[in-house]
Amino acid sequence: MPQPLYDQIGRRYTLTRRPDPRIAAAIVDALGDAPTVVNVGAGTGAYEPVGPSLVAVEPSWQMIRQRAAGTTPVIQASAEALPFRTGTFDAALAVLTLHHWADWRAGLDEMKRVANRLVVFTFDTSAVGNFWLTEAYFPEIVELYRGRCPSVAEMAHYLDDCRVDRVPIPHDCVDGFLGAFWRRPEAYLDPRVRAGISGFALLDQDVVARGIARLELDLESGAWERRFGNLRSLDAIDVCYRLLVTI
Predict the structure, then answer these.
(1) Tens of pLDDT, residues 60-86
(2) pTM for this structure?
(3) Which of 52, 104, 144, 223 is 20 to 30 A from 38, alpha carbon to alpha carbon?
(4) Domain boundaries, position 98
(5) Which residues is 162 bridged to in the sheet?
(6) Residue 67: which CATH number?
(7) E strand or H helix at 169
């Protein structure tokens, strides 16, 4: 079995990746009153709801060891082979994880097999290139993600009976994923921030260095402000994040 990606890149994940309460509220609302939940690709346990009987599934021991003491029971396994009987759970949750699965269809099939409802928080690969960071500085991230993850339209079609909600990202989002710093461009210059974003970790580091150098120059010269400074006045925007909920 190949080494899970986050055994390699997730050693200090929790430094910059913490659940944002506004995103958490949207996820909890989507889960509704489901009494039993499985969190697939659970990572360090962000966005796991408090209250329901919940089991986490995570392939990376690096992520498992960063889970807070006393949190949800966790099983080391992959999304494509969930170690549960059919219909074990009322709901299955997956948060920003599909782009790391070897076979997203098999993973969704497994979620559907073990749970009655699916809640998937993800990003739309068909829209990720519309973000200033990927458009102007890192188009390679768009290519990378499109090679690893389906569009939301593809996922929704595969799930069939499902609704898709847009999730605006607040300007002060505390979960440091790719689009979190859309109003704080200086944050991307911090290697600790980039270390928590798989798009940066998976790119050739020479490509990362060149893109960061361009961004740093544009921030120093005022070029970023002239092109994108209007974003500084906004409280939240649609960067490309979506919540899929089966009906």
Answers:
(1) 888 888 888 777 889 999 999 999 999
(2) 0.92
(3) 144
(4) 5-246
(5) 246
(6) 3.40.50.150
(7) strand 169-170
